[in-house]
């Protein structure tokens, strides 16, 4: 696995209006790595993803993508560095069919998946290609939201709570998808409340509390960290 650094976040501060929500977030993600941000609600995990994309009210510190400083760049320029963001609310266009949703995203970088590749990965979406966005199940909407990013050529995927509220069979399908993307060399940062979903998938885990990273450990250290994780997360 290549160990070149895809993302480097240093002393990241973030605000929504007067509310100071990120208090010096520090972490990095190597190319081809899967990293999961863990923490209770309000710990700052989603805000961290939003701040990386420039979607927060105000931010300061340093966010480097392949060594390029992005802290002053607008969101569309950040995305064009090869970053795909899948927000918790999914953002499916309800008036468009599943396939029309898939054909919408711009090309950010070469190497995006074709419609046929997407359908091979998500057979459910092929079956529902002509269905309106709002008529898809929650799981199908989640697959569509991730699939749209894969069309763009993004190689760093920021996935926010993709397993939330979905049936176990769909969660299993999403786990298989993350494993497959990792095998294809994608770099992934996941925010997850569902520890059982995240545990087998990530190379590293970052625990957030009060808007900063307070603990970091690798997959191989997971068993020995369960007591402290229980304290932080109640898992």
CATH superfamily of the domain at 1-82 and 157-164 and 188-235: P-loop containing nucleotide triphosphate hydrolases
Low-confidence parts lasting 5 or more residues at pLDDT below 50? none
The total count of helices amounts to 9
Structural class: alpha/beta
H-E string:
EEEHEEHEHHHHEHEHEEH
Do you know the CATH architecture of the domain at 1-82 and 157-164 and 188-235?
A: 3-Layer(aba) Sandwich
Question: Biggest sheet, open or closed, and with what strands and sense?
Answer: 6 strands, mixed
Amount of beta strand: 25-35%
For the secondary structure, the number of strands is 10
Residue share in helix = 25-40%
CATH class category of the domain at 1-82 and 157-164 and 188-235: Alpha Beta
* Gross morphology: globular
Task: Determine the N-to-C terminus distance.
Answer: 31 Å
Indicate the radius of gyration in whole angstroms.
17 Å
How would you describe what is shown here?
By secondary structure, the chain is an alpha/beta fold. The chain has a domain at about 1-80 and about 155-165 and about 190-235: P-loop containing nucleotide triphosphate hydrolases (Rossmann fold, 3-Layer(aba) Sandwich), CATH 3.40.50.300. It has helices at about 45-50, 75-80, 100-105, 115-120, 125, 140-150, 170-185, 195-200, 225-235; strands at about 5-15, 20-30, 35-40, 60-65, 70, 85, 155-160, 185-190, 205-210, 210-220. It is globular, with a radius of gyration of 17 Å. The mean pLDDT is about 90.
Outline of the structure:
The chain is of the alpha/beta class.
């Amino acid at each position: 696995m290549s160990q070149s650094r895809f993302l480097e976040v240093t002393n990241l501060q973030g605000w929504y209006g007067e509310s100071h929500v990120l208090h010096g977030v520090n972490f990095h993600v190597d190319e081809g790595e899967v990293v999961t941000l863990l923490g209770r609600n309000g710990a700052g995990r989603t805000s961290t993803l939003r701040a990386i994309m420039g979607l927060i009210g105000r931010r300061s510190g340093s966010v480097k993508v392949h060594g390029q400083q992005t802290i002053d760049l607008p969101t569309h320029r950040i995305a064009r560095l090869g970053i795909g963001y899948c927000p918790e609310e999914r953002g499916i266009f309800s008036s468009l069919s599943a396939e029309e949703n898939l054909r919408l995203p711009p090309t950010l970088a070469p190497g995006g998946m074709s419609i046929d590749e997407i359908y091979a990965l998500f057979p459910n979406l092929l079956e529902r290609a002509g269905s309106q966005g709002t008529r898809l199940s929650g799981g199908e909407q989640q697959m569509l939201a991730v699939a749209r990013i894969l069309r763009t050529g993004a190689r760093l995927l920021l996935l926010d709570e993709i397993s939330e509220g979905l049936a176990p069979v769909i969660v299993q399908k999403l786990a298989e998808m993350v494993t497959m993307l990792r095998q294809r060399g994608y770099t992934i940062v996941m925010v997850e409340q569902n520890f059982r979903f995240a545990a087998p998938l990530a190379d590293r885990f970052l625990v957030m509390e009060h808007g900063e990273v307070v603990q970091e450990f690798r997959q191989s250290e997971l068993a020995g960290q369960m007591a402290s994780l229980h304290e932080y997360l109640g898992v």
